[in-house]
């Protein structure tokens, strides 16, 4: 098909080009009579160079740029709110999607220390809302709205990637970073709003796009998927043959305690969940992260710690102990740092390694689903 014949159609609602896989982009451009390398050029311009309009893609003909712009947009989310924490380490963006759904994305900056290079981690949402109703979670309290598309997941990272690269460039200009060292986003965690394994296909497709070496190029080992514990999803992920990290939100050492805060436990009780974790470890040879939100008086006593040690002592895992980020509606309070350390020392007796994590960005409500809550509260 010649370009001239195509240019005439103007779509009122442009489709986001971020929804296309590389193969789909290739097919589309081939249908327009474009050579094969064109898809690679467009892909690179979007994902590596972070172009925000087709007009900037000056290595394409004017006709092709015009045609692309008439048919596609590069993403379709609007930034509604953007906040930075007082210490400058954390940015949070509230995006509005074309159907008015609101989702959140967080960028966390970690300075280099003796052991590790500096990192920039993006926390992405996979659903608008969530159906799983964990009682301590702001997203859970909002209920389920819908799955995000692959393009909507990717756009969150892409927006943060542009920002991260801009910061790199500023550091290069001021001599703080060596020339040519544009690092951008180094890690992605699927720990924003929603349950990633309940949006499985779009999750996997977005991981493929993130992974692409001529794009954002985040290595699989730098990607973490956090799940509430959907057993079939964990098993499926174990069989994918990708070297990503899995984090499992356990938050309790026994069925009775877990069912009190996590309704999903009735469907997939702890025994089945630990079996699935073991399967994941066997198939991937990778250590699992066990997320344990400390809820004062609910799951943070020595009895709980000892039960947890017993439960996990034979699993290749690392436990992250996270004092809860209290939500507007929730009844929970944070466990103090001292008590968290005591919990940690109880676990140590079982040789279960753990870290106490004080969450970043508390002052900008960077806990799961909290900025959206704040924004809605402001609207009401
Ligand atoms: N649905 C997935 C991923 C999104 S939630 C999951 O549940 O794992 C990401 C993490 O934030 C989970 O470990 C979740 O339990 C935790 N979380 C939810 N609400 C929280 C809160 N108020 N304070 C601290 N962590 C919270
Ligand atoms: Fe959903 Fe995860 Fe929140 Fe539970 S913690 S309600 S699974 S987003």
Description:
- The protein is of the alpha/beta class.
- It has 2 domains: 3-73, DNA polymerase, domain 1 (Orthogonal Bundle), CATH 1.10.150.530; 78-379, Aldolase class I (TIM Barrel, Alpha-Beta Barrel), CATH 3.20.20.70.
- Helix content is 38%, strand content 18%.
- It has 14 helices and 14 strands.
- The chain has helices spanning 3-6, 22-31, 37-48, 62-71, 138-142, 150-173, 200-211, 231-238, 255-261, 264-267, 270-284, 302-312, 337-348, 370-379; strands spanning 15-16, 72-73, 78-84, 90-96, 102-110, 119-123, 127-129, 144-147, 187-190, 223-227, 245-249, 288-294, 317-323, 354-356.
- The strands form 3 sheets. It has a 10-stranded mixed β-sheet, sandwiched between helices.
- α6 packs parallel to α7 (200-211) and α12 (302-312) packs parallel to α13.
- The protein is globular and about 70 Å long.
- Mean pLDDT is 91; it is low at 1-12 and 374-380.
- S-adenosyl-L-homocysteine binds at residues 134, 136-137, 191, 195, 226-228, 249, 291, 293, 322, 324-325, 327, 367-368.
Summarize the structure.
The chain has 380 residues and is of the alpha/beta class.
């Amino acid at each position: 098909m010649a370009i001239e014949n195509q240019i005439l159609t103007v779509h009122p609602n442009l489709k986001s080009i971020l929804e296309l896989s590389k193969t789909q982009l290739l097919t589309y451009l081939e249908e327009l009579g474009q050579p094969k390398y064109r898809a690679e050029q467009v892909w690179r311009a979007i994902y590596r160079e972070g172009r925000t309009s087709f007009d900037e893609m000056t290595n394409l003909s004017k006709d092709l740029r015009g045609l692309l712009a008439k048919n596609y947009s590069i993403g379709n989310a609007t930034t509604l709110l953007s906040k930075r924490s007082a210490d400058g380490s954390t940015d949070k963006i509230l995006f509005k999607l074309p159907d008015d759904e609101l989702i959140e994305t967080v960028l966390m900056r970690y300075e280099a220390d003796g052991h590790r290079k500096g990192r920039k981690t993006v926390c992405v949402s996979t659903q608008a809302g969530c159906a799983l109703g964990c009682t301590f979670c702001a997203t859970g309290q909002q209920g389920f709205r819908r799955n995000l598309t692959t393009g909507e997941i990717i756009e969150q990272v892409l927006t943060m990637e542009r920002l991260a690269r801009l910061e790199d460039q500023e550091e290069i200009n001021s001599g703080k970073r060596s020339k040519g060292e544009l690092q951008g986003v180094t890690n992605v965690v699927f720990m924003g709003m929603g349950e990633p394994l309940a949006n499985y296909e779009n999750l996997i497709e977005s991981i493929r796009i993130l992974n692409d070496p001529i794009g954002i190029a985040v290595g699989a080992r730098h990607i973490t998927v956090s799940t509430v514990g959907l057993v079939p999803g964990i098993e499926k992920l174990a069989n994918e043959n990708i070297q990503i990290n899995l984090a499992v939100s356990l938050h309790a050492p026994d069925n009775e305690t877990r069912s009190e805060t996590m309704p999903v436990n009735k469907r997939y009780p702890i025994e089945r969940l630990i079996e699935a974790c073991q399967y994941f470890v066997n198939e991937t040879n990778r250590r699992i992260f066990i997320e344990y939100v400390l809820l004062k008086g609910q799951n943070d006593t020595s009895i709980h710690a000892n039960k947890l040690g017993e439960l996990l002592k034979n699993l290749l895992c690392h436990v992250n102990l996270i004092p809860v980020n209290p939500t507007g509606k929730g009844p929970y309070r944070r466990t103090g740092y001292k008590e968290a350390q005591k919990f940690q020392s109880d676990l140590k007796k079982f040789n279960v390694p753990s870290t106490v994590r004080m969450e970043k960005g508390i002052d900008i409500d960077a806990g799961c689903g909290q900025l959206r809550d704040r924004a809605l509260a402001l609207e009401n």
